[in-house]
Design goal:
Oligomer: heterodimer
Number of helices of chain B: 3
Helix content of chain A: 40-55%
Strand order of the largest sheet of chain B: 1-2-3-4-5-6
Shape of chain A: globular
Order of helices and strands of chain B: EEEHEHEHE
Structural class of chain B: alpha/beta
Largest sheet of chain A: 5 strands, antiparallel
Helix content of chain B: 25-40%
Radius of gyration of chain A: 16 Å
Order of helices and strands of chain A: HEHHEEHHHEE
Largest interface: A-B, 31 and 23 residues
Strand content of chain B: 25-35%
Number of helices of chain A: 6
Shape of chain B: globular
Strand order of the largest sheet of chain A: 1-2-3-5-4
Number of strands of chain B: 6
Radius of gyration of chain B: 13 Å
C-alpha cells in the first residue's frame, strides 16, 4: 500500500466510525478530528473538548476525566506514532456520547517493530483488576523516569484508571512498515 | 537565594519559589508536552537552595490537571524537597484540590505514599 493509499485507509476508518455514530439514535459525536495532531492541533482539540462538555452541562469530574484521557491519548500519539512520511497526518480522534457515557476513540499508524511491545503492555494492563492496576501504577510512578519515548507506561495506566479499565484496542497491519492501531475508551460519570 | 518564578500558561502551571517571603507554590494545569524540560529549572533551583536554620517551608500545590509525565516530574520535585531535610530544612506539603475533585486528591495521596514528606490536604 503506497502512502496515498495509507492515508485513504485511515480516513476510511475514521469515516466508518463516524457513520456508525451518526446512524445510531442513542449515540452522538461531540468532537471529531482527522489529521492535524501538531502541538497546536492538540491544544485546539483540548480546548474544544472542555468547552463543548461544559456547554453541555456535564459534571466537572466527568469533564476532567475525559480531558485527562484525551491528553494522555494525544500525547501518546505525538510520542509513539510512526514518523514516516506515509504516516503523516493520519491520526484521528472521535469523542462521542453513548447511552450516558462517553467514548474516546483514537487511532494512529505505528511502526511494525514496536507493535508487539505495545500489544503486550496493553494486554497486561487490561487484564488487571482495579486494585492491581493501582499497584502497578504506583510502582511505575516510583520508578518512573522520563525519556524521549515517554514515562514508564504511566500514560496507558492513567487511561486505564480513569476509564475503570474499559479500554478496547485493535491492531491491523497495513503494509510491511506500518500497523493501524486504535483504542476505544469508555469514560463514565461514576 | 533569589526567587524562582514561571508564569502560568494554558498547559503548564505557575511556579513560584520565593524564599524571602517563605512562599512556595505550584498552581494551575500541568500537561506540557515536554514535562521534563518544563520542570528542569524548578528542580535545579531546589537542588541549589539551602534554607535558613529552623525555617519551615510550606509548599502549596493547587493543581487542576496533572498529566502522567507531569506526575513523574512533581514526584521528582517532592524528592528534591525531601533532600532539603538533609540540608537543615523542614518541609511540609500543602496539597490543595477543588472541592469536587477527588482525582487530584488521589494524586496527592499517591505522591504522599512515595515520599516521607508531611502532607496536609485542603480544598480551594
Amino acid at each position: 500500500m503506497n502512502s496515498g493509499m495509507v492515508k485513504t485507509f485511515c480516513q476510511d476508518k475514521w469515516e466508518a466510525i463516524q457513520s456508525e455514530y451518526k446512524q445510531a439514535e442513542d449515540k452522538r459525536i461531540v468532537l471529531s478530528n482527522f489529521g492535524d495532531l501538531s502541538e497546536d492541533g492538540v491544544d485546539a482539540i483540548l480546548m474544544m473538548v472542555e468547552n463543548k462538555l461544559e456547554s453541555q452541562g456535564e459534571p466537572r469530574m466527568l469533564i476532567k476525566r475525559i480531558f485527562t484521557v484525551v491528553v494522555e491519548c494525544l500525547q501518546n500519539i505525538r510520542i509513539h506514532a510512526s514518523r514516516t512520511d506515509s504516516a503523516k497526518d493520519t491520526s484521528f480522534i472521535i469523542i462521542a456520547k453513548e447511552n450516558g457515557d462517553y467514548k474516546v476513540i483514537v487511532a494512529n499508524l505505528a511502526d511494525n517493530n514496536i507493535v508487539e511491545n505495545i500489544k503486550t503492555k496493553l494486554l497486561k494492563v487490561t487484564a488487571l483488576n482495579e486494585r492491581a492496576l493501582k499497584k502497578v501504577y504506583l510502582n511505575s510512578l516510583a520508578m518512573g523516569k522520563l525519556s524521549i519515548k515517554g514515562g514508564a507506561g504511566l500514560g496507558i495506566l492513567t487511561i486505564a484508571l480513569k476509564s475503570n479499565n474499559n479500554l478496547k484496542f485493535n491492531f491491523e497491519k497495513v503494509n510491511e512498515d506500518l500497523t493501524f492501531f486504535n483504542m476505544d475508551i469508555k469514560v463514565s460519570a461514576n | 537565594m533569589s526567587k524562582f518564578l514561571v508564569t502560568e500558561s494554558k498547559n503548564s502551571p505557575r511556579i513560584c519559589f520565593d524564599p524571602g517571603n517563605n512562599h512556595f507554590e505550584i498552581s494551575g494545569r500541568s500537561y506540557p508536552e515536554n514535562a521534563e524540560r518544563f520542570y528542569e529549572g524548578a528542580l535545579e533551583w531546589i537542588d541549589g537552595y539551602s534554607p535558613e536554620d529552623d525555617k519551615k517551608i510550606e509548599v502549596n500545590f493547587m493543581l487542576q490537571y496533572v498529566s502522567s509525565s507531569s506526575v513523574i516530574c512533581v514526584l521528582q520535585l517532592l524528592k528534591s524537597f525531601e533532600d532539603l531535610k538533609g540540608r537543615g530544612g523542614a518541609v511540609s506539603i500543602h496539597w490543595k484540590h477543588q472541592s469536587d475533585d477527588e482525582d487530584i486528591l488521589a494524586t496527592g495521596e499517591d505522591l504522599a505514599s512515595l515520599t516521607s514528606l508531611e502532607f496536609e490536604y485542603s480544598t480551594f
